[in-house]
Design a protein that fits this description.
This protein has about 750 residues and is α+β, with helices and mostly antiparallel strands. It has 19 helices and 30 strands. Bound molecules: ligand MTE, hypoxanthine and dioxothiomolybdenum(VI) ion.
Amino acid sequence: MNNMESANHVRGRSVYLDDIPVLHNTLYGAVLGSKAAHAKITGVHLEDAMAVKGVERIFTSADIPGQNEIGGIIADEPLFASDETHYYGQPIALVVARDELTARRAAGLIKIISEPLEIITDPRIAREREEFLIPPRTFRLGEIEEAWDQCEYIFEGSVDSGAQEHLYIETQGAYAYPADNGGIKIHSSTQGPTAVQRITAQVLGMTMNQIEVDVARLGGGFGGKEDQATGFAVMTALAAYHLHRPVKLVLPRHDDIRMTGKRHPYSSDFRIGLSKDYRIIAFKATMYQNGGASADLSPAIMERTLFHSTNAYFIPNTEVTVYSCRTNLPPNTAFRGFGAPQGIFVIESAIALAAYKLNIPARLIQKTNLLKEKDLFQYGQVASGSNIKECFNEASEKFQLNNKEKEINDFNASSPNARRGMAVMPVCFGISFTNTTMNQARALVHIYQDGSIGISTGAIEMGQGVNTKLAQIAAAVFSVNINRVKLETTNTSRVANTSPTAASSGTDLNGNALIIACNALSARLKKVASAITGCNAEDISFHNEIIFKESTPTELTWQELIKEAFLKRVSLSEIGHYTTPKIFFDKTSEKGNPFAYHVYGTAIITVTVDCIRGTYDIDEVLIVHDFGNSLNPVIDKGQIEGGVLQGLGWSTMEEIVFNSEGRLLSDTLSTYKVPDIYSAPSRLECIPLETTGPELAVMKSKAVGEPPFMYGIGAYFAIQNAIKAFNPGYTPDFNLPMTPEKVLRNLYSK
Ligand code: MTE
Ligand code: HPA
Ligand code: MOS
């Protein structure tokens, strides 16, 4: 089944924030961002801006009735900067005017007088100054200091990875208006409607029940709207609260790119020790996370980096420390993979360096160290249902890895100016929010008198297809035609206290809650059916809209049954509540069982480098991936393709550049290049691993949103291998993205 919304998407009929019919008297906002990355504000002059015809009012920190505080995990982030600014683009004021252009023009006339303070953009410098967002954390297994003696080979290196812009098609935005009894209703392009509700209440000094947040769908989120949609939604609510009028704010792309945080850059040092037969005996790493000016989701992202710092390998002795460093950049935030790609790049770099020094293919080390069933993860969880070896072996066989190697060598020997390279990229990704509390969800199901079904959950549709999967689940439990099922907007008044749709767990959590609600309704309806047909409720079943009694069809249809149930005053509504069982984590010992299960897979990536220009083509990305028993192979394939492309972009071409003043230089699509159809792999194939799927995945269909991102990282190492084949003097370094400029330098380095 295709994504059930795609027909409306391509006809332009799906409603996004900017498609909501605008109410009479609506005003429009524009945000003034700081032009200094770190400064003491000594004067704010609004007069010229206020004098612009059509400007209604300008809001600053002085207008906040509650707390000037929007930090989701740690209270360290003002909605509007008041006495100091901490990053270039930090919101200082919201101008509200009769139209968008007037608001923007007026914002440009606000004068901010400030005295510069020292600007830090490098996490290693922040570490020296002890500028931390939270204290460092360390994961350990075995006895690292004793382990070095057992190693035949020890290698050390450092690794850097860059930021990444989310570039959702729909920029950040919100639309708020006064509601009944002094409340506020907000339409927000957010992955976390409850966060918007909670923080708005806090800023306005109101209670959560006075704030209603509604989300139809997002034009992409990718993590960038897990936390960072909140501030902009709160701004519109603040203005609507004061002006008693509807206020809309949609960020222009340029503001969005400059004001919002990105994937965290990391700088890391590692030490890896191997035995004679290439078993990794010890791995030690220290990582500096570039958190930006406030915590945002950095503490949770730091945690996921730690969880994934050994990727798909069993390493008996480890010690990995992450420092979350405060810098004068926009607060960095969630982005597909949530810190895991950064950690995985470090261990894969360590393996690549060892392979280079030992003059063997990296895949030999990778294969030797893959997790086995019952192996211990660093954090105390025992690997269960771990099939990384199967993925790795099947990828090697089905895609004929050995032939490929020979073909590449032949090509390289006969080609004057092009070189091919290959890399294998195993992936292991833990499914569940690492914060156990967040692994809960609710679903509200109404069956209407005519037999149609309306479903509300906490899940946000952002293109990943969660609505389709949820509709499939309800249709399966009731055995009705999927056309009967409608997914309602996500609304905090219908389903409360939601976790953001994130951690790839949207379908697992909300789908399981939905099953619970549907099962309860089903049980009630079976009772009604048994009374009508004269049997026990256990003998009733539903098949394609027909009610069966003892496995044979009756005259009774779904539609008639619903009508009868209603006439008999049986409730046709139900709310299901789900919490993931068996998961826990103790932050004192840094041990536990945090993940419901892991997703595994292996990609083989081949590239061709043009050794005159430094440009490259991604020839093939060939994957064996464990979907479990996929609920929707079409959607899952789309997630693989999108994830791979985004991962390729991060590791090869997307380069975020800040100058020493903390100002973003790559702030347009002419200076920030993302993969397009021309840079997509010529061949992208994904073979599902034959498995039954784990019990804790909804209907045994594994979460798929984030894991494929990591396959793209393999391109970095494939390009390195191509460079190596051309330039015998090349010493690999580990600093992504591998841009064409960098490739060119490396091709001719000595
Ligand atoms: N796919 C599309 N098309 N758009 C998105 O914004 N976000 C990704 C992934 N796939 C995203 C996407 C991220 S970061 C996550 S965490 C998951 O989808 C969230 O949705 P899920 O939990 O339903 O998989
Ligand atoms: N993943 C994604 N988002 C999150 C997480 C996580 O593990 N924890 C908190 N927000
Ligand atoms: Mo995804 S980074 O967990 O929104």
